[in-house]
Every structure is written in C-alpha cells, then in structure tokens.
Design brief:
The complex is a heterodimer of chains A (91) and B (345).
Chain A lengths: L1 E2 L23 E6 L5 H16 L2 E7 L11 H8 L2 E3 L5
Parallel strand pairs in A: 2-3, 2-4
Chain B lengths: L5 E2 L4 H10 L13 H10 L7 E5 L4 E4 H11 L6 H11 L7 H5 L5 E7 L1 H6 L13 H16 L22 E3 L10 H4 L8 E7 L3 E4 L6 H12 L13 E5 L1 H10 L3 H11 L1 E3 H6 L15 E3 L7 E5 L7 E6 L9 E4 L5
Parallel strand pairs in B: 4-5, 8-11
Antiparallel strand pairs in B: 2-3, 4-6, 6-13, 7-12, 8-12, 9-10
Classes of the chains: A alpha/beta (91), B alpha+beta (345).
Chain lengths: 91, 345
C-alpha cells in the first residue's frame, strides 16, 4: 500500500541579499504595519540611527494591515527614495 | 500523480500510524487515500490533478487540486463533498480574506464554513440540532479537509506559521449549513448577490464562540440587547477596531425576529447602536491606553461601524433559547468571503 504525500513545499522564490549598507548618512524608510506601537517603535529606531549614524528619515509608509502584502508600486518607490528600509514589528 | 513516498504493510492500523509518523495528521487518525479514492474525489469536482485552486503569494504557496483531494480523502470526505472543500479553499485564497493574519495569529482562529443553497440538502450538511457539534459526516469532514489542507499545503502548522496561543476546538473542523427553511429573512448567500438556487460557502475567521441565552424575550429589543452585550464584552477582540462579527440565531430566537416583522437591517442597526462600551470602562480594563478623564464616563465607543459588519445567520435546533456570537479576527484586516460551489452532486 502507498502513502500519499499531502504536503506541498512553498515554492522557492530567488531573492538577492542586498549588500549591507554603511549606515552613515543613509536615507531611511520605515514600513509601518499598523500593529499597536509599530510606528512608535520604528520612529524611535529611526531617531537612534539618525543620532548615531547621521541617517535621515526619508519616508514612512503605512501598510493597509499586518496581514496584507505591501501594495503594488510601493517597493519600487522605496527603492528610489531610500537606501535602507526597516519593517517587521509584532505586537 | 501524487508521488507516493513510501510503502507500508497492508495492515490498516500500520498505515494510519505511518501517516502519524510522517506528520500529516491533525492529531486524529486519517483515512489512508488510494489512487481510486483520490481520482474519484477529483472527478466529483471535475478537476485535473494539476489544476491550481488558489495561491497565497506572501507564503509562496499554491494549492493544487491533487493535494487538496488527498487531504479531503484523509479527512474522511466522500468524493461528492469535494466541490464544497474546493470552494472553501478558493475563499481562503482570495485577497480580501488576507489569509496570513487569521491563519497565523496568536488569536487562533477557526475557519468557519457556512454552507448555503441546494448542496446543503444534497449532501446532508447539518443546519439543525447541534449544528456546531458532532455527529454529521459532511460537517465534520469538510471542515477537517480545509484545516488539513491549511496544515499540509498552506504551511499552517502549529508552532510554525500557526502561532495560536490557545487555539480553539473549531480549528479541527467548523462547518455548518444555514437553516434556510427556518429563517426570518433571505439566506446569507442571497444577501451577498447570489441566487437562492446557487450553492455557496462563506469562509469566516473567528477565534471563539459563545452562546447567548435568553428564554424570556418575546421582542427583538431584549434579545438583541443580550447579543449586543456579548459582542461588546470587555474581553472580546471586537473592541480593538471595527471587526466583522458573526451572530447565529437559533430556532426560538429566530422566531422572535420573524414574528416581530423586523428586517435584517433593523436587527443589524440595533446591534450597531447597542454594542458599545464607555470609554472610562475601556480604560479601567486597559483596553484603551491613557488616564480616565471626566468626559470618559459619559463617552461611549461603538464596537461596530456599519450594519453590514454584523453577519446574521440562522442555524440550530428549533427548541431552545440559544444563539451564538462568534467574534471576527483582526479589525477589518480580513473579511468573510462567499464563493460559489461550482459543481454539485
């Protein structure tokens, strides 16, 4: 008798790893996911990076919700406007 | 077709144990699929094995018909149940359902499947006594097939991308039919633009279920005050922004609404106006941040924004003074989705 595999692996999507940026003077983007305190924490982080490395806050993008993917067109815009993007805040 | 991984002895118990050992089950024994049962299941929905039922882009996940069929057989579905399973999976994959949140959240949502239309009678899906409970094969296995597909195909495994703090028993299976013959209004799917003769599944994420009791109310107002209070209790996730919520009215309560002449909209509007909390109480309970100021004692905050945020459904036995509230998950980050069952037996 056979055992049938009911699983499916997530398809691999090639993602390049961005070179680690030098933090001195970078343009910073924050992607805020609407979780409670998300924007507060991200802005504090942005402030610290600014004080320590001289980065500038270029853009703060607010996602529709934590559940939704970032909207079409936002990633290319972030690429143009910023050198470093910070995201990923939980509760 | 399915890439059988290994063989086991002909002993059925050993075969079931092999599925456990492979990590393919939800904790209950599964029905070991065969080539024939998988083919019969696909045929019942007129699907090819490699057809895509849906995708979750944020997880790089694609659900194909063969994998869904294997999970449906494992869940104990008869082949003719499969079109309902397929419709539910398609609903989970719709962008507006926003799968990742309700599937992975600490809130531990059950995926509630509400079935409407002729398929209910054709398959014998229970809408009556014990509608949420045990004892009916289609209810038990259709919901289980969806959950097994979530685990095995959509990578929603407990402790990994299912981060439920407590979860709830509805995560094994939660499927029921609307009681269309015992309804004060038109059935749910008709309110969503489908014909009464269409068969549909509505997919809705809820992290709990509590029953609302009222044996004395003979008018809608006192009955719906109890429902509103249950929807707006201080511990409910509903308070954090305007959720969608499901209210299931059962027999005696349905009859109160029917006899009153209230429309569905009347009942929804009443609930919108009465599901509320004082800001001061929300702050005392630390459901809102900040110090209490005098105005908070007289300022109220509504739980719902609009009548359509409240899904009113009828199910359950005719006897008994019970209804149920099922809070929705996550503000308006996810919305219930109704999908047509494309092939019916």
């Amino acid at each position: 008798m056979k055992i049938f595999d009911p699983t499916a692996a997530a398809s691999a999507r090639p993602l390049g790893v961005a070179p680690t940026p030098r933090l001195g003077g970078v343009r910073l983007a924050l992607v805020e996911n609407t979780k409670f305190n998300s924007e507060t924490l991200l802005r504090k982080l942005g402030d610290r990076l600014g004080r320590k490395y001289g980065s500038t806050l270029a853009v703060v993008h607010r996602k529709r919700s934590p559940s939704h993917e970032i909207e079409d067109g936002v990633v290319p815009a972030l690429r143009r406007q910023a050198d470093l993007v910070i995201s990923g805040i939980g509760d | 077709m399915t890439g059988p991984a290994e063989s086991a002895s002909g002993d059925p118990v050993a075969l079931i144990e092999a599925y456990y050992a492979a990590g393919y089950t939800d904790g209950l024994p599964v029905v070991p699929p065969t080539d024939k049962s998988i083919a019969d299941t696909l045929a019942a929905a007129a699907l090819r094995a490699d057809q895509t039922l849906g995708e979750i882009p944020s997880r790089n996940t694609r659900v194909t018909a063969d994998k869904a069929a294997i999970n449906a057989v494992m869940a104990g579905c008869r082949p003719e149940y499969f079109p309902v399973v397929v419709a539910a999976i398609r609903g989970l994959c719709r962008p507006e359902f926003a799968y990742h949140g309700p599937a992975s959240s600490t809130g531990g949502s059950a995926m509630v499947l509400i079935v409407n239309g002729p398929v209910v009678r054709a398959l014998g899906i229970n809408a009556g006594n014990n509608a949420f409970g045990q004892g009916h094969r289609p209810n038990a296995t259709i919901g289980r097939a969806v959950r097994l597909t979530m685990m095995n195909v959509m990578n929603t495994r407990p402790g990994l991308l299912d981060r439920a703090t407590l979860g709830n028993p509805g995560k094994y299976s939660f499927c029921f039919a609307e009681h269309e013959d015992d309804h004060p209004w038109e059935p749910l799917h008709v309110t969503r633009g489908f014909a009464a003769a269409d068969s549909t599944v509505t997919v809705y994420a809820s992290n709990s279920l509590y029953q609302v009791y009222n044996q004395l109310a003979s008018r809608p107002e006192p009955l719906l005050l109890c429902v509103a209070d249950a929807l707006a209790n201080l511990g409910t996730p509903n308070l954090k922004g305007f959720n969608e919520s499901l209210v299931v009215l059962a027999g005696e309560h349905s009859e109160v609404l029917r006899a009153s002449g209230w429309s569905r909209r009347d009942a929804q509007q009443f609930l919108v106006e009465h599901a509320r909390q004082r800001v001061a109480d929300l702050k005392r309970a630390a459901r809102l941040p900040g110090e209490i100021v005098p105005a908070d004692e007289t300022t109220e905050r509504r739980v719902f924004e609009a009548p359509e945020d409240i899904l009113l459904v009828c199910a359950g036995g005719r006897a008994g003074a019970w209804s149920a509230c099922l809070p929705g998950w996550g503000k308006k980050w996810t919305r219930s989705v109704t999908v047509r069952v494309e092939a019916t037996p």
